[in-house]
UniProtKB/TrEMBL annotation:
Spans through the membrane: none
Sequence segments annotated as region (Disordered): 55-86
Biased composition (Polar residues): 65-86
Protein name per the record: NACHT domain-containing protein
Gene3D superfamilies in UniProt: P-loop containing nucleotide triphosphate hydrolases
Amino acid sequence: VTERNLRATTASTPLPPHRDTAVVGCCSTRTVSRSRQKMVNSSCEEPATKRARTYGARTDGAADSTCSGPASSEIPTADRQLSLSSGSTVDKCRQLDEGLAATFRRGDIRLLRRAWVLGAPDQRLPYRQVLEERERRGELPLLSPEEAAALLECGDRSIGALTHPWYSPGDPDPVGVKLKILREALLVLTHIEAIFVDYASLFQHPPKGTRTEAENEAFKRALGVMGDVYASAVGTTVLQIKEIPPRPQEFDGELCLFGLKAGVDEAAVCQALSDLSTEFESCDLAFESTYGVVRFTTHAAALRAKAANTFSELCGGVDTRYNERSYDGRGDGEGGRDGDEGRGWCCFEGGVSGELLVRLSVYPRMKAELDKLPPKLISLASGRAPEPVELSHSDVWQRVQQVVESIEKATFTGKGDKEVVPVLYKGYVERVATVLASTLALQTTLETAAEVPVMPSVDVPPAFALRLADGQLLLLPGADARLAGGDGAWLAEVDASHKIVRGRLFDNFVAELTFDGHSHAVIPWCPAEAGAEASLRRDLPALRALGERVQPLLKEVRQSEGELQKRGEASLIVVADAVELPMVATVARKAGDAIRQVLKKDAEYPPGEVAPPLGKRIQSLHASLELLSPEALKSLAVAAWREGGMVGARRFASGQRLVVRAADGAWRESAAEEACALDGGPASLHPWNHAPLEVSVNAFEALRAWHTIALRAQHSHIADALSGRRLDVLQQCVAIEVAGGGAELASVVDARSLAACLRTLHQERLAGGEATRPPATLLTAGPASGKTTLLSQVVVLSLDGELVPILIKMQILQQRLISSPDAFATAWNWVDAYLRIEHGETSPLYRMLRQAMMVRRALLLLDGLDEGGTNREQIERHVAEVLAPQGHVLLATSRPAGIGEARFTSFHRLSLSPLMPEQQEHALVQRVGKAQAAPLLEYVRDRVPIDAETGHCITANPLMLSMVASVFELRSGLPMPTTVAELYEVASDVMLSRGGAASGALRRLLQAVFFEAQVSQRRVIEDRQLDEAALGLDRPEALEAIRKRAAASPFDMRSSNSVENGHFGEIVEGEHSGKRGVIVRDESDLLKGR
């Protein structure tokens, strides 16, 4: 006996020898993981020499003659360290075996020890009760229940499960052929440590007797998990013996009568055989407790009696005592025998053996993980080495029907089995299809995107300092303006040093010139208005003087008519001068008209009309002068500078390094003094063809090429929400309709045409012509309608063009805004701030993306404006007032509810439309294939309900369509749920399993939330509903108290002059005192003093 020293992979000291180490003819040294130690240690109670004597094996290392067999094979052994640490795939599949492991622990199924099978002197396998009796006498033929469960949980297919045809009803292997085949195979299959053989592993009827009541109950329980024994993906290796040896002579002429009816005796048998009386020899109707035996003089006579249906009135079934029927069917003459349809239980075992693996085959990465284990199904036969059997995956859709048909056509010996076994198989498949959902959480992890090469190592030195020409006007952000989502509020000018900006008009500040420190708005862009900057500069001294003259007039006026008239007349003189300034002429006229109205005498009013009280007239005078206050004049100057059409023009100081798009479309590095003479011709600069140099052109192109590969890997496939399968993003159907905004988007119907339209918007800007509208688009759609999928499609479709896609989920941007406000307060836009935080300020990738935005060749894709949380207002403002005016090609998505419509009037508008029936059909055929789509299309047409709100079938929503397709794929070969409730139940179970939601508490919470939502017909579920459901389940008395307080005072009122749209308010003074309502428009000036 060669002792195998079993060591734990993490231990340096040897464990006690395994009791299974008395393996004759096996000299391999292997290791096992720590997870096997319990099983190993519990099996080491006897010296190896004693065990060797028990088994009758030799101790000189020579192989016993009964165990000779092939010396080598191509069957791989299990790599224990690999299979036990390969991660989630094996772990999840191991979870599918929990019911089987419980059956092992209960002892309903016992496993044969490998060492005993190889070393025992028996030439025929005893049945279970005999083996347990020998176990009680000290022999070790069987693993203990705990050992069996531990071995199963190792997940390395180290349990062999024998599937085989029984040669006779009382003994499946009366001449020991299978035992010899099994022993020869085990010498090769060194990873097999225990074997399931139904005859030895399950309680049997003993000779002339029956199972006890307890044994019968255990047998029934074992029968319930029989499918798991053969189907376990990682626990068992199926060993298949189909061989039918020649009939031994002692079985010639014998028929078995099963299910003998009451009162049948030998006389009745003789009477039934009157036509064959000369060939009838004898009968023993008590041969076994479950059948009797009739003997004929020849085997041919026995076959004639069987074919003549001679015993139909005497028993439930009849067959030859030596059963030569094939395993799973054969043709006439095959093997020198008549054709047949095979054996029912064998067809069942063969069917379930590959069921789970065939279904997992549609997930290649999971299959690849399982392929690291030894083969699942191995064919054994006399005189040859074991051979792996390749499981066919091509017929996964018809598999259930094919297996059921084979079972129904096959022959069963046992009464009632023909009805029971197909149901058993279908029930097993149903359970596998359901439980399989728990493995799909791996899909998003295992089916990862294509590998991305390492980012190239490029030299990206710090950028050159920005230097602008003396006198360049800029807009600088006001105090806290950027954190509020805004932009430039102060007018400033670059001084002669080219590095310092100084405030103009009434702001006498000094600041360092930086790229991020000033506004980069460029819309509107009107190159024809090249003199706008010079005109504004000329008017600035006059504006300053005007403000200085208005400032004293804003001082408080004494409550007298004389003082009012005096102040009003002085104001009219100032206003008259202001009218001469084009920038403020309109406002000055409005102020003058209001002042003259204030100064009207009582006699000047029409009869019956009375002049307002003095106090109100003084307030009106002050409000009129406020129109020309220094703050108002600053705003007017900023607005004039923006609307002049050249706010985005830049004059650079000599030597400023730039990147410029030349006439041939190539980007080149240049310097300010060369900017008018690239490639021998003038370069007309505009915001879309140049920017200060951030990274070299070569570095930019190298990083962009890598970024393109990374984006393609990330966005070319999406994870199906239900199954987790990776789906080709370009094959997903998302329908678009133009919701408003001009001819540019008239042709947009899908992602491909949308991507083309965005490229066109950029090409138009590259021409440098007038642009009064930003190249920005807002797409709105309801939840789960395909917005995120559409953005991934746009990314993939834009990778081969000039634009560089940058996709940002606004929910994550909001999180960064909260955690790092300083980064957003100092950045020229929040996308730049986000990228700087995500990648690092010195990251080459960040620098490349920043350069792309600086030259406005970035395609900004903003996913979910409505997901800005508490910062949604600031985020929407920033997108509309900063990013869009900066001239970036931009596509933002949002749910329509609550979007600030007024902010996005300059945006092109799109919405997602429901999928039409033909689009749904196309998507489903593309998803499951034309051959399999027919029943699914019928199901969608006939069973899927109409959404009462939209009037469309619920599968007009892409998520719902994908859900139906995923359920169909999971249940391939099984009927779809018959009701919508069942469909949603299946989908919910799968999604909860994918999310790891094994918690019953979570299920109860969701049930409570959805029930309340259904009762109240609420389609949008918010945090409040979750809180109420949780309280209702855990502390219903607290919820009741809260609801009583709310009923008594439904609103927590607080006095405030600060209001926001959407607030619920009560008017406390004036003619509408006591009325309540929702704030729908912010006109704060109307609320002052009330």
